[in-house]
């Protein structure tokens, strides 16, 4: 049964398959096993919360992709993938979390059934969803297995017109989420209550488009906790005199648009105003040069040079590619905006420019998701720049 509301045309899926097979030919790969759920979805349309069990997509020398997974998830595949039902294969439930038998044995049998047993097999070795046990089991049936980590990811870097439309819809959703934070937050509001409103707003969606679940939960540390980049939330009330940054994402049809802003109540410390000026200046400098032909390290150098002129320094990368993604990461795991990455930007790439600063007593995040255009770049969100500053008088 075909998907009743496909995210993309069959022609677009076939174009993606052609791009992947071209990359396979360059790498000497004859059969590719894809375990990353974002790559699975990009190739087939499959969309389900089933990545906690072994599943994947097989790309052979010809023909459509083959979906493989747990038997009960075959129904989900029939509802979401673009291929015919005869491309859906599964293993029975006795293989699930059973130390005595591994699902990869059935994958090897499937490869043999298609006559591909003697061909060069490649897998995504450095991936959240492909374990050492998977590799060991496959080695029982295949003499040599090569690494194809990132092979599919790199084919996703330049987005189609439809993908950019989805990214813009996700951008409108996260814009609405940040507007809700600015309007709703007040001194004394429990953090978890605000996070509940963030989720509600994001899933309600924007401009008539529903909201999907984000690939990362909201990051919302306050005060000293905000010196660390990846803390989440608790029930502590928001307080005057401390900064809280909100790193959140809008999502539409699994396309992720992350953006961060920082909230303070009352008088803003001079250090934070200085950091705000530095980040805004560095962001403006990057927006001026982000265009086709510029390299990732060009962006990083411009950012770091501008930041240094204002007395600040950032050790980590200042951005990365974004797009279709599943937990635990909303990045595409390809390009990084940092020294040494000489990848040239091209029209259709979508990036999360991430000029976060972690200070001695807190943190400041004011980030921008961007799309590279034919002549430069555009913001995917309409969230006002700068710090979000509100009175410290409690509820109002």
Structural class: alpha/beta
Low-confidence stretches: none
Question: Order of SSEs, N→C?
Answer: HEHEEHEHEHEHHHEEHHEEEEEEEE
Oligomeric grouping of the chains: single chain
- Beginning-to-end CA distance, first to last residue: 53 Å
In percent, how helical is the residue content? Answer: 25-40%
Radius of gyration: 23 Å
* Dominant shape: globular
Biggest sheet architecture: 6 strands, mixed
**Based on DSSP secondary structure assignment, what is the total number of beta strands?**
16
Question: What is the percentage of strand-forming residues?
Answer: 15-25%
Total of helices: 10
Report on the structure:
The protein contains ten helices and 16 strands. It has helices at residues 10-27, 37-44, 74-80, 104-113, 132-139, 151-155, 161-184, 191-204, 270-289, 296-309, and strands at residues 31-34, 56-59, 66-70, 88-91, 121-123, 145-147, 244-252, 255-265, 319-322, 331-336, 350-353, 357-358, 363-364, 368-372, 377-379, 388-390. It is 32% helix and 18% strand. The longest helix has 24 residues, at 161-184. The termini are far apart. It has 396 residues and is α/β, with parallel strands linked by helices. Helix 4 crosses helix 5, helix 7 runs antiparallel to helix 8 and helix 9 runs antiparallel to helix 10.
